[in-house]
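Sequence in, structure out. Go.
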Amino acid sequence: MHWDPFEPGESYQFGWYPVSYNRYPIMNTETDRERGVLSPADRAYLLGDREMSHEQSKRNAEARIRRRIHAAMLDFDLLLHTLPEKDRKQLFERTTTDEEFLDGLRAAVAFLYLGTETYGVDFEDVLEPAIRSSEEYLAATDRAANVSVDVTFDVETTVESSLEGVATRLDAGEPVTPRELFSLVMHGEYDTRDHERIRLVGTDDEQTADGFLERLASYLGGDLDQTSDSQAVIRLDAATGNRDDDY
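Output:
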């Protein structure tokens, strides 16, 4: 069976995302911890565990989350200049023992990098002045000295394709992008019918053709649940499948 998820005349660019690229290598799915930027209800919504019957309710939840993130970014300026040293020490000493906290720090940097590089300014324009001013502060307070700081930020990427990595993440219950799932299924050696549901991220990418997710879900014999603009769940019957075995 041959399936083309695109409308006639549209081209398929395999490089939409490198299939080996996991944008979310580690994700904390606990919803009931103390409120931070997100409330427990916000976390449940983003994870697709809280359903909203009205489209306006979804838009309100997403707008609220955006406002909280924006306010949190502004709060960091206050924290940088006013949080006592003893509190900063107690907070960051846990990076040597608290793996979840360290994962959160990595995720915060990744979130900032993706946001600035994709939609805003170059991440280098954020990183370099932040490091320079911090090093100047450390030199002045620790060594009572003035220093000249040279910051070099260089990123070199090599695109590789690894469908095995996508399969591993699916087996672990982690989300994948629609194109990663499509590439894996079209390869023909992975049976998604072993899953009750598949979580998708990056569903709002502008290169995703209209109707792509619906056709992908239909091909897999599942139902599509768009939990937010950027996330969706394909709910499958783990026991049976509706598609042909012949790809």
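Check: Strands lie at 197-201, 223-225, 231-235. The CA atoms of residues 4 and 215 lie 9 Å apart.
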